[in-house]
Amino acid sequence: QVHLAESGGGSVQAGGSLRLSCVATGYTNSRYCMAWFRQGPGNEREGVATIDSDGTKTYTDSVKGRFTVSQDSTQSTLFLQMDSLKSEDSGMYYCAAGGSWCLYGMKYWGKGTPVTISG
Questions:
Q1: 8 A C-beta contact, residue 18 and residue 10
Q2: ∠64-69-71 over CA atoms, to 5°?
Q3: Which pLDDT score, from 0 to 100, does residue 10 have?
Q4: For a 10 Å CB count at each end of the chain, is N or C smaller?
Q5: Whole-angstrom distance, CA of residue 114 vs CA of residue 6
Q6: What are the average pLDDT values for consecutive 10-residue runs of the chain, which has 119 residues?
Q7: Residue 74: predicted pLDDT
Q8: β-pairing, 10-13 with 113-118?
Q9: What DSSP character marks residue 89?
Q10: 3-class state of residue 108 by DSSP
């Protein structure tokens, strides 16, 4: 059973930074895609950043240049470094994981960690 656990959310002022983490356990594949999604108040869930099994990274346009997705050397922990945060970045952030390529969709989801940007 695959389990994803996010942490690192919180409340910061606009312009500040947060670093989210997601630990994946129970994966039998050695390499798989992982991603961050978010859902703001009244908004649909959107993809924020992905990292495929080969290390290829993608970002939604609104976070390019401000957010950085990465993994640890074991590829079992996913990070999202969020800088220059804006109020529109507020929402629940979810970690997700799938097969080798995120393009084909996510199979597993975490419960989310909240991010609130004020000011």
A1: yes
A2: 165
A3: 97
A4: N
A5: 10
A6: 95 98 85 94 94 94 98 90 97 94 92 95
A7: 83
A8: parallel
A9: G
A10: strand
Residue 82 region by backbone torsions, left for phi larger than 0, else alpha for psi between -120 and 50, else beta? beta
Residue reference for tokens 């994966």 = 27
DSSP lists the bridge partners of residue 94 as: 37
d(CA 66, CA 3): 28
Q: What is the pLDDT of residue 65?
A: 98
User: Looking at residue 102, what DSSP letter applies?
Assistant: G
Which tokens sit at 33? 């895609």
Number of H helices, E strands in the chain: 0, 11
**Percentages of the chain per state (helix, strand, coil), in multiples of 5:** 10, 50, 40
In the numeric block, the tokens 């999202």 are attached to 80
- The structure tokens listed for 24 are 């994946």
